[in-house]
């Protein structure tokens, strides 16, 4: 082992002896190296003699990138010989200057470039009055802090600097760079990391973030093509908004940091809407109040709440000109039928003017307003009507029991509520027995209810009633059996179905002979 060292060092010193003078003059340096790790604590313990100096152009502890130029300045107070040793971070030792003879007070410079590797690079200068023998070089490299024992009248000094690898510039792209999305939906985004020459960088860590919404992942690793993807989830919002998605590469592996952003517009696309009206048509008399309900819903049939519907008509009026829909998407108004002298067709329109994400829509229904003609006592027509809150009639006599209530007719007029034990008792006279007689009754009842109609206590008629509201143009029509009538005064009795005990509501009745 010792022999091998001696042979190696003899060869090394021969090479350095040939190169020493030409290296300084042309700015080159011998790159003869061998391995030794200098302990940082040993380096710190090396004395700094004032009679020998060494420095770098950027100052001690400065940073140089690999490839940067560097100037090493050195000198000594006395004439003698100089050796300079460069300890690299990977355990290499380069002898930059070997037994260079200098004069008293000289100041020299060595120009070179930093070759790395990255880390702390330490320079040690050794001054001796006589040349250093080949066998002494190895001992000094391994124990530079003990130079005084090896070389009497010697002097040492030291300096160090940092070496950093120059990072490759990177380009981080994000597709798409901007896009539009609906609230609550998602979109896949792809980032790609390359170097300045377009070569993909695989295995790089990318950090994702957004200021509005969420992401399927916030940390990804690029694939062999330098790509990685995440899904962006837009927030559920009723207002247009924006979001910024950011991707960051913090650098590493000799690559420089880079970042990129994408802008998201969160806007609801316009959905069609529709209005369903109930009733779809109606008939009324002047002064009647017709309850009309509009239901606003989207194209999928889902109710839309909290939106204003505007009501218009070409004739008549409303209790409200605009109404907001409730949780079921419904808005209800009362239409007041106007005075007319002839049968008149009117239109009623409900309008939704649209909002962001919902299209405007209108629906119109038609109604017929029938004029009121005075009804006078006659033996060809008899009637009664509770619509105005009192019993209007032209029967010879009329007695009834029950309560007058409203809310069971389309026009929200009054009707007589007949419960078990209530009835209406009427008398009328058609003169002689007519050839034909018809009864019209405007009534409704609880589910399964029937109204019982009896003429002169003969053959009662049971009329099944609907549970829907009473509509002006939809009475129950019954042909009266002629054999149930008599000449002169007749008695008509109307009562509920006692066996079923269900409420019925009668608004109007007309008998025509």
TrEMBL record:
Gene3D superfamilies: Immunoglobulins. This is Bacterial Ig-like domain (Group 1). Belongs to the intimin/invasin family. It comes from the Bacteria. It comes from Candidatus Atribacter allofermentans. It holds the Pfam family Big_1. SMART domains: BID_1. Residues 170-259, 271-365 form the Big-1 domain. InterPro entries: Big_1_dom, Ig-like_fold, Invasin/intimin_cell_adhesion.
């Amino acid at each position: 082992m010792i022999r091998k060292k001696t042979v190696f060092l003899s060869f090394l010193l021969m090479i350095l002896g040939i190169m020493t003078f030409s290296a300084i003059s042309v700015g080159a340096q011998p790159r003869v190296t061998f391995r030794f790790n200098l302990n940082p604590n040993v380096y710190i313990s090396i004395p700094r003699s004032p009679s020998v100096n060494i420095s770098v152009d950027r100052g001690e502890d400065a940073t140089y990138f690999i490839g940067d130029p560097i100037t090493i300045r050195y000198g000594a107070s006395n004439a003698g010989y100089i050796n300079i040793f460069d300890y690299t971070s990977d355990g290499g030792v380069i002898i930059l200057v070997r037994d260079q003879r200098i004069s008293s007070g000289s100041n020299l410079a060595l120009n070179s470039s930093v070759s790395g590797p990255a880390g702390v690079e330490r320079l040690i200068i050794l001054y001796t009055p006589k040349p250093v023998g080949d066998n002494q070089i190895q001992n000094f490299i391994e124990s530079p802090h003990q130079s005084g024992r090896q070389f009497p009248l010697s002097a040492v000094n030291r300096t160090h600097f940092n070496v950093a690898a120059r990072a490759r510039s990177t380009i981080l792209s994000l597709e798409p760079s901007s896009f539009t999305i609906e609230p609550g939906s998602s979109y896949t985004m792809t980032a790609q990391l390359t170097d300045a020459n377009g070569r993909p960088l695989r295995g790089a860590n990318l950090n994702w973030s957004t200021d509005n919404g969420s992401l399927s992942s916030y940390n990804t690793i690029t694939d062999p093509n330098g790509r990685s993807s995440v899904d962006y989830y837009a927030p559920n919002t009723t207002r247009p908004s924006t979001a910024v998605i950011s991707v960051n590469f913090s650098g590493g592996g000799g690559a420089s940091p880079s970042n990129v952003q994408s802008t998201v517009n969160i806007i609801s696309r316009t959905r069609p809407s529709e209005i369903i009206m109930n009733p779809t048509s109606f008939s009324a008399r002047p002064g009647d109040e017709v309850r009309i309900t509009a239901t606003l819903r989207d194209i999928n049939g889902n109710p839309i709440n909290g939106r204003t519907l505007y009501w218009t008509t070409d004739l008549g009026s409303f209790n409200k000109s605009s109404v907001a829909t409730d949780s079921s998407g419904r808005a209800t108004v009362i239409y007041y039928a106007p005075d007319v002298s002839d049968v008149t067709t009117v239109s009623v329109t409900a309008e939704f003017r649209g909002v962001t994400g919902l299209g405007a829509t209108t629906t119109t229904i038609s109604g017929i307003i029938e004029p009121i003609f005075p009804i006078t006592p006659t033996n060809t027509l008899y009637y009664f009507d509770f619509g105005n809150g009192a019993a209007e009639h032209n029967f010879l006599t009329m007695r009834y029991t029950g309560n007058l209530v409203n809310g069971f007719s389309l026009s929200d007029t009054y009707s007589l509520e007949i419960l078990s034990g209530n009835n209406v008792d009427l008398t009328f006279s058609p003169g002689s027995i007519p050839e034909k007689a018809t009864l019209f009754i405007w009534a409704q009842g609880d589910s399964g209810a029937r109204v019982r109609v009896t003429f002169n206590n003969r053959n009662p008629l049971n009329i099944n009633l609907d549970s829907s509201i009473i509509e002006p143009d939809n009475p129950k029509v019954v042909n009266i059996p002629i054999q149930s009538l008599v000449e002169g005064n007749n008695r008509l009795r109307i009562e509920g179905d006692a066996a079923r005990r269900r409420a019925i509501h009668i608004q109007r009745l007309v008998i025509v002979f």
